[in-house]
Design goal:
Blueprint lengths: L1 E4 L4 H10 L5 E4 L5 H10 L7 E3 L4 E3 L1 H9 L5 H25 L9 H18 L7 H15 L10 H10 L13
Parallel strand pairs: 1-2
Antiparallel strand pairs: 1-3, 3-4
The structure holds glutathione.
Length: 182
Amino acid sequence: MLLIGSKASPYVRKIRLQLGQEVYKFLAVDIFSDEGKQIVQKYSPCLRIPVLVDEKTTIWDSYLIAQYLEDKTFDLETKKNLFLINEMTDAGIQLYQLRKFHLDESDTSVFSQNNLTRIKNILSYFDQMSLEWNLLGRWVFCTLDWFLYRDIYDFRNDFIHLNHFYQQSQNEKYVQETDPRL
Ligand SMILES: N[C@@H](CCC(=O)N[C@@H](CS)C(=O)NCC(=O)O)C(=O)O
């Protein structure tokens, strides 16, 4: 199996945590460079990472990859929760790119403010949940850590339960190995 991604991407990290000890090749690309874009384009029409290449198929989108690796269709509750995590991750990615490309560096536009509100609403939903280190918990963790890594939103004082879960997760398997800061 080949996983195309980057060390920084929260979507890619979720898949790396899920793959754990499985044998696979990780091709790290810089999606903002011409070379990186050309590589991703070969595998995915939507030009996004992660992409998983297996003997039988090539899969884009972290949700579809996660389902493929689990070898089962997620139940409705799981789908709803995973969808919410990707919604808040997408909102964070949009904020990040607006800052990076100097379109809205201080989140003042209505678009950015709406995304911040979306992030806080979804965090509040997960703050009321008792999370464990399973697929759902790992997904939440990857996005929380990426919010801090990219300075998107510091949830630690506003969401006490999530912060507790975040701190506890630091000791889990493969968390250090997949830390984008290292
Ligand atoms: N829905 C996709 C989103 C993936 C995504 O947005 N990945 C970012 C990297 S973190 C990306 O490829 N961005 C490329 C771009 O914005 O041009 C998934 O869950 O895999």
